[in-house]
Amino acid sequence: MPSQSTSGTQTATVTTEHVLATITTAGVYELAVDTNAMVNGDELELKITDRVLTGGTNRTCYFASFAHVQATNTKKSPPIVVLFNATFTLKQTAGTSRDFPWGVNRVDT
Question: Are 31 and 102 in contact, with CB atoms under 8 Å apart?
Fold first, then answer.
């Protein structure tokens, strides 16, 4: 069973990119977000960035967007290999602000 690295509930402010977690320990992680609260008209973006080199610039390595009511209420990223400094973000781009429970899980332990 994967060990939970960090988790919480983010109250999204529409159009604001919220940093859920910054991971600096190398490993394999996944982002899980509960989208059960979404209704028609809501839009959500999930993003993970990481660096290729120490001191380099973070670049997007995972991006997904979801709109309206979600038939599958938990969205998970594929396992992402974190090299140096990964940032996991959530951004609600439309609709009414919602609460999104989330977790960043280390899956290689």
Answer: yes
Half-sphere exposure of 14 (CA within 13 A, CB side): 10
pLDDT band at 3 (very low <50, low <70, confident <90, very high): low
DSSP helix/strand/coil, 15? coil
Residues 75, 34: Cα–Cα separation, whole Å = 6
Predicted model pTM: 0.92
Is residue 95 within a helix (H) or strand (E), and if so which, with residue range?
none
Asked if residue 89 lies in contact with residue 20, where contact means CB atoms within 8 angstroms, the answer is: yes
Residue in 55, 50, 57 with CA at minimum distance from that of residue 25 = 50
First-to-last alpha carbon distance for the chain, in angstroms, is 8
